[in-house]
Amino acid sequence: MMRSLSRIGWSAVCLAALIAGAAGAAYARHETIPYVSGGIGEKAQEALKARESEFNLKLVFTLVEGNYVADVNVVLTDAKGHRLVEHRAEGPFFMARLPAGQYTVAATYNGATVTRKVPVRDKRLRTEYLRWPANPKVDVVLPPGDGMAAAPPAPAAPVAPTLKPAAAPGGLSYVSGGIGEAEQQELKAREGEFNLKLVFTLVEGNYVTDVSVVVSAKGKRIIEHVAQGPFFMARLPAGEYTVSAAYEGRTVTRKVSVAEKRLRTEYLRWPANSKTDLPVSRWITK
Question: The pTM is what?
Answer without folding.
Answer: 0.47
